[in-house]
Design brief:
Length: 487
C-alpha cells in the first residue's frame, strides 16, 4: 500500500483527476464555403484574446481553455477529486466552448458572412488526423512507473470494449487503417497510437505518456498521463472509463496482485480488438499463451468487484456509492459481449448507442457501411451543440442516459471545485477579473505581476485553502478596474 498521503488521506481513497479534451472544429458559411481550421479557431477565440490578450487562459471555474497545436480548441478540467464532480466539469467544457461557438456565429451574421461553427467531441477527422482525450490521475511518487505501466497496459488496451466511442472506419491509403476492411470499430483512438509507453505525445502517440509533469510537489506526486482513451459524449461511458481506471489504480496502490496479461504486441492488439465486436480475438501474451480481450476485462472486473466490497470510505474522494454503478455497468457490458445482446447497455455506452442508431438508419435505407450518409451520422453524434448534436437529441428522447444535471453543469462552468487546489485558483481569478493588475496563473502558481505584486505557490493539489491567497486578492482589490464584458 502506498504511504504517500495528501493532507489527511491516502491517495488510494482520495485522488486528483482531470480530463483534457481536444475538439475538432469546422465551419460552413452561408455560401457553403468552408474556412480553414486555423481561421475558424482564430474567430472562435477572438473574444478570449480581446479580453485576456491570450488564447491560453485559465477560466473562472479553475480550468484551462486554450488553442492547442493543429488549431484544436482544448479544455483541461480543473483538479477534481470525485467521479461525478469530474463529469460535471468535463461537461462544463462543452458548455464553455459551445457559448464561444454561438458568439462566433453571431459575429459572422453581424458581418454579413453567416454560417455555422461546428465543434466536435470526437477523435478523428475525415482525412485521418487524430486528436485526443487525455486522462490525468495523481499517483504517489514512490510507485515505480515501469511496474505501474506493466500492470495497466493490458487493462488500457482492452478497455475500449467498455468505453470506446465507436467509429465507421473506411480504409484510407497511407492511414493506419489502410489494410483493414470497412466496418464499425469500437475505438476512435486505437488506430492512432504507436507505442505502449513513451515520453512523446504527437510524434509517436503512446498509450501512457511518461513526460514527468506532476503539476505538484515532485517529491511526493506523479501525474499519470493516459492518452489512449476516446472522447466520450455519454456521461455514463465517461464514468465507466474513469471509474474503472481509478479502481485498477487503487488496487495497484493497495498491493493487490492482479493477473499477468502482459501482451506481446500492444499496438497490434489494440487495432485488432477495435475491429472485433465479439471481444474474442486471440491476443498473444509476452510470456507465452493467448488470451482474449474479454477474458482480460473479465479478470479486471472480478478484481474490482472484490476490491469495491472492502474498499475504505475514508476521505472526501469518490464514494463507493458512485463506484458501485460503474462496476455494475462494467459487468453488463461484458455480459453483452458474451451473449451478443447489448440491449441492456444501449443507452449507456457510446459505441453501442451510436451503432444502434447507425444500424437503424442503414436498415431503413438499405445503406452500405461506406455510405456517406452513415458517416454524417457518425460525425453529427459528436456535435456538442445541444440543438443539433445527435447525442443530445437521443438524451432528450430518453435514449441516452445522464448522470449530472444541467444546473450542476452550469455551476461547474462558472465556479471552481471547492474541494481541491482549484478553489484557490478560482478565488484568485474572480478577483483578477475586476482588477487593473496583470496576473500570471498556472496549475501551481498564482502571481500578481509588477511592483508591489506577489506570488503564491500551490504544490499540493489537495490544498483548497491556499494560505496567502488573501494577501494576493487584497493587492488585486486595491487596483480596481471597470469590469469587462463576460468572456
Amino acid at each position: 500500500m502506498s504511504t504517500v498521503t495528501g493532507p489527511a488521506t491516502p491517495l488510494y481513497t482520495r485522488r486528483i483527476m482531470g480530463l483534457e479534451t481536444e475538439f475538432g472544429i469546422t465551419s460552413v458559411l452561408d455560401s457553403h464555403r468552408r474556412l480553414g481550421p486555423d481561421e475558424v479557431a482564430r474567430h472562435l477565440f477572438s473574444p478570449v484574446v480581446e479580453r485576456w490578450r491570450s488564447s491560453n487562459i485559465y477560466w473562472r471555474n479553475g480550468s484551462r481553455v486554450y488553442l492547442d497545436v493543429g488549431a484544436h480548441p482544448e479544455y483541461a478540467t480543473a483538479e477534481c477529486d470525485s467521479l461525478h464532480q469530474l463529469i460535471a466539469y468535463d461537461r462544463a467544457g462543452e458548455r464553455i466552448f459551445q457559448d464561444l461557438a454561438a458568439r462566433c456565429e453571431t459575429s459572422f451574421g453581424e458581418r454579413g458572412i453567416g454560417g455555422r461553427v461546428y465543434l466536435l467531441k470526437n477523435n478523428t477527422d475525415s482525412i485521418g488526423n487524430s486528436y485526443g482525450c487525455h486522462e490525468n490521475y495523481l499517483v504517489g511518487r514512490d510507485i515505480p512507473l515501469k511496474a505501474l505501466a506493466a500492470q495497466l497496459l493490458p487493462f488500457l488496451v482492452t478497455r475500449q470494449l467498455i468505453c470506446g466511442a465507436g467509429k465507421i472506419s473506411v480504409p484510407t491509403a497511407g492511414a493506419p487503417n489502410e489494410n483493414f476492411a470497412p466496418g464499425y470499430c469500437l475505438s476512435q483512438r486505437a488506430d492512432h497510437v504507436w507505442e505502449g509507453v513513451s515520453s512523446a505525445t504527437t510524434r509517436s502517440r503512446p498509450i501512457i505518456n511518461t513526460r514527468d509533469e506532476p503539476h505538484g510537489d515532485s517529491s511526493r506526486f506523479r501525474r499519470l498521463h493516459i492518452i489512449v482513451g476516446d472522447s466520450n459524449m455519454s456521461e455514463t461511458t465517461t464514468a465507466l472509463k474513469v471509474g474503472s481506471a481509478v479502481l485498477v489504480l487503487e488496487m495497484i496502490e493497495a498491493g493487490i496482485t492482479l493477473p499477468d496479461f502482459e501482451l506481446a504486441n500492444e499496438i497490434r492488439s489494440i487495432r485488432e480488438i477495435s475491429r472485433d465486436l465479439t471481444g474474442g480475438a486471440l491476443l498473444t501474451l509476452r510470456h507465452g499463451g493467448t488470451v482474449t480481450a474479454l477474458e482480460i476485462q473479465r479478470a479486471f472486473h472480478a478484481a474490482a468487484t472484490d476490491w469495491l466490497a472492502r474498499r475504505p470510505e475514508e476521505g472526501t474522494g469518490t464514494p463507493n456509492a458512485q463506484l458501485a454503478p460503474v462496476v455494475d455497468l462494467w459487468g453488463r457490458v461484458l455480459d453483452g459481449f458474451e451473449s451478443g445482446d447489448f440491449s441492456a447497455v444501449d443507452t449507456e455506452i457510446d459505441w453501442v448507442i451510436k451503432k444502434k442508431l447507425i444500424d437503424a438508419v442503414a436498415a431503413r435505407g438499405d445503406l452500405a457501411i461506406t455510405d456517406p450518409r452513415l458517416a454524417q451520422i457518425d460525425l453529427t453524434y459528436h456535435d456538442i451543440n445541444p440543438d443539433r448534436g445527435l447525442f443530445h437529441l437521443l438524451a432528450r428522447r430518453g435514449r441516452a442516459a445522464t448522470l449530472v444535471t444541467d444546473d450542476e453543469v452550469a455551476t461547474a462552468a462558472t465556479t471552481a471545485p471547492a474541494t481541491t487546489r482549484a478553489a484557490v485558483r478560482g478565488r484568485f481569478l474572480a478577483a483578477a477579473e475586476h482588477s487593473a493588475r496583470q496576473t500570471t496563473v498556472d496549475w501551481t502558481r498564482l502571481k500578481v505581476n509588477g511592483d508591489g505584486g506577489g506570488e503564491l505557490l500551490l504544490p499540493d493539489p489537495f490544498d483548497n485553502t491556499g494560505d496567502g491567497v488573501d494577501d494576493l486578492i487584497r493587492i488585486l482589490d486595491d487596483s480596481p478596474a471597470t469590469p469587462s464584458p463576460e468572456g
